[in-house]
Amino acid sequence: MSDHTQPEAQILDHDCDGIREYDNALPGWWTMIFWATIIFSLFYPVYYHWGVGASVHEEYEADVALAAEEQIARLGPITPDNATIVALSIDAKKVLVGRAMFRTNCAVCHGADGGGLVGPNLCDGVYINIKSPEDIYKVVRDGVVAKGMPAWSVRYNDTQLTLLAAYVASLRGTTPAAPKAPQGTNEPPPWSTFGTTAAGGGAKTD
Question: Coil, strand or helix: which one is 16?
Answer without folding.
Answer: strand
